[in-house]
Design brief:
Shape: elongated
Structural class: alpha/beta
Largest sheet: 9 strands, mixed
Helix content: 25-40%
């Protein structure tokens, strides 16, 4: 390089180094909000409040004419008015196949004690959803390793599926079964708002070494700041997106989408948004659409999204469940009644719907699934009569078939936590069951 070229390159660098550092001041700390004055920044920018080891990173969540409203990404203990605030760029996320087998916190930092990450790059957490006309069509099955899902609620590669249930019905256990049994090349698992006690249990007991080896786990426990809980969903999504852009077919599992919405509710209300439906501000529903649309197919790879939705009081029509159902490509309903009876996974096959099932199954497979669904629906409709012993045999052939083959039906719908169900074997078993039902009817 010539002396002229060196001088040309060094001069802008010298100007940047000599530019005075912009420093603002914390004007107030109230609840979850840190107000900063005297500094220009945009929504989503990171600031550092304080000096030295006690400095706390905050993110700008709202900007006014005279102040920035920020929320902390760490403990607020020690923050006070008058502390200096400095700009610090935007949140960046480690990505790449080198993250497989690692456990990260809600901001993408390792917490498993296994040393530095072998990331291919550090990219901004925000990214645009795939262009609607550049998305590949969902036309390839995505086996999940769970018999009832692979046959009666068949998923496609790049689909976004919701698992709807109340607390303690088995959503996390179902996710762990999928993580171990899915045919995806990689899994990204986001545990948002989980109890700290359950994280290690999930990693060691539910996921296991085999599942963890091909997974990236992002954890933001319930005691994490609301912004970290909200950001953890986008960190996991960004990691999955990078795998998709590399041509892989990944599964993104998020437990739970409801806790992401709750974190956004805390953020929105803290900065002055008006409460709307059940206290959720408008930004919550905009965030759900922005987050969920980022999963799906791309020009090369795909991200199959599986999101648990914690329905409030087992009300499947509460606002978050209703909004998520309208965006997602299908929903799996888990019933408390089945879980109480020891029926696991507690999937209500009749109430569960996959909007892409017709594109990823053959006509014969759809016919077999429809036959079993019809028998299950008939048994459910006659439940009151059956409970009081008022059903008369011969009234409905489908109910008769359901009663005659009750043991076989329940055995098909149930599956142990450690049982892997190959998809071809599941379809063969369904065909044999439907043949017996038809013969009985």
């Amino acid at each position: 390089m010539t002396a002229t070229a060196t001088a040309t390159t060094a001069w802008p660098q010298a100007l940047r180094a000599a530019r005075p550092e912009a420093v603002g001041t914390v004007s107030s700390v109230m609840g979850l909000v840190v107000d900063v004055v005297g500094l220009r920044a945009a929504v989503g920018d990171l600031l550092t409040v304080g000096d030295g080891p006690a400095a706390v990173p905050v993110e700008v969540v709202a900007a006014g004419e005279d102040r920035l409203r920020c929320m902390p990404l760490g403990p607020v203990t020690g923050l006070q008015a008058g502390l200096p605030a400095r700009g610090g760029g935007t949140l960046r996320v480690p990505v790449g196949r080198g993250l497989l087998g690692r456990v990260l916190d809600g901001l993408g930092r390792p917490i498993d004690g296994r040393g530095p990450l072998r990331a291919e790059a550090w990219v901004p957490v925000e990214a645009a959803a795939p262009h609607p006309l550049e998305r590949a069509r969902v036309d390839t099955p995505m086996p999940l390793g769970v018999r009832v899902l692979d046959t009666l609620t068949a998923a496609g590669r790049g689909q976004r599926l919701g698992l709807f249930a109340g607390s303690g019905v088995g959503k996390s256990s179902l996710l762990s079964m999928i993580a171990r049994g899915t045919a995806a090349e990689a899994s990204v698992i986001a545990l948002v708002g989980e109890r700290g006690r359950e994280v290690r249990e999930f990693l060691e007991d539910d996921l296991g070494p085999e599942g963890l080896a091909r997974s990236v786990v992002v954890v933001a426990t319930s005691d994490a700041p609301p912004l970290v809980r909200q950001r953890s969903a986008f960190v996991a999504t960004r990691i999955a997106e990078h795998l998709r852009d590399a041509g892989l077919h990944a599964v993104l599992m998020m437990d739970s989408l409801t806790r992401v919405a709750m974190a956004q509710r805390e953020i929105g209300l803290s900065v002055g948004e008006p409460p709307a439906t059940r206290g959720y501000p408008p930004s919550t529903f905009a965030l759900l659409a922005r987050l969920l649309e980022r999963a799906g197919t791309g020009p090369r790879g795909s991200v199959t999204g599986l999101y648990t939705v914690l329905v409030d009081g087992d009300d499947h029509d509460e606002p978050i469940a209703d909004a998520a159902r309208s965006i997602l490509d299908g929903h799996v309903v888990l019933r408390r009644e089945l879980a109480v009876a020891g029926h696991y996974p507690a999937v209500d096959a009749v109430a569960s719907v996959s909007r892409v099932a017709s594109r990823v199954t053959t006509p014969a497979q759809r016919a077999a699934a429809a036959s079993l669904r019809a028998v299950l629906a008939a048994r459910g409709a006659a439940k009151d009569l059956l409970d009081v012993g008022a059903y008369v045999a011969g009234t409905d052939p489908r109910v008769d078939a359901a009663l005659a083959c009750a043991g076989d039906i329940d055995a098909f719908l149930r599956q142990g936590m450690d049982d892997h169900a190959p998809v071809a074997e599941s379809w063969e078993r369904l065909e044999r069951l439907v043949a017996r039902l038809g013969g009985t009817a």
